[in-house]
Write a structure and sequence with these properties.
Length: 182
């Protein structure tokens, strides 16, 4: 069992578009095992490879006991119905905010052996695959919050214990977000 360090907001790897997996080898199997172990240790619902500092398009999930992984995920179609729910991220410990997401989504990709797989997600599974696939594009859930909620999230992040461990980069804002508190 190998539990690795989870990268926090501010680490540039979280803002990097991850590379497609092209080699389905022992190294990939180890990555999926490490993601699974680290996700379970952190009691997370999902974990994406960039969160372990590996810029590859892979994530793992454990949604209500359904444990799996997806390599090179592609999402769509999405349902028109949206769902409410609180969302958080292991790379932003202790931060959780309401975020509407499509209630259902189809995710296609590959398993660790390179075989094609599809996951039809609804509810938490849908939220999880959307959140984790975002990670592979350098997108964090805070980017998707509405303006007012995002402001509250930024404040919570500034006040978080782990804030300032690396220079944070938050998209969609021209202003420095982690200046001195007033
Ligand atoms: Zn996350």
């Amino acid at each position: 069992m190998t539990v690795r360090e989870i990268r926090l907001l501010g680490d540039p790897v979280l803002r990097t578009v991850a590379d497609p997996v092209t080699t389905f080898d022992k190294e990939l199997r180890r990555l999926v095992a490490d993601l699974t172990d680290t996700m379970h240790e952190a009691e997370g619902v999902g974990l994406a490879a960039p969160q372990l500092g590996v810029s590859l398009r892979v994530f793992t999930f454990d949604v209500d006991g359904e444990v799996g992984h997806l390599v090179n995920p592609v999402l769509g179609p999405f349902s028109e119905e949206m769902m409410d729910g609180e969302e958080g991220c292991l790379s932003l410990p202790g931060i959780a905010f309401e975020l509407k997401r499509p209630d259902r989504v189809l995710a296609v990709g590959q398993n660790v052996h390179g075989d094609p797989v599809a996951i039809e997600g609804s509810g938490l599974m849908s939220r999880c695959v959307q959140h984790e696939t975002d990670h592979l594009d350098g997108v964090l859930f805070i980017d998707r919050l509405d303006r007012i909620t995002k402001k509250a999230a930024m404040k919570a992040i500034r006040e978080a214990e782990w804030a300032g461990q690396a220079a944070p980069v938050v998209k969609a804002s021209p202003h420095p977000l982690f200046g001195r508190a007033r």
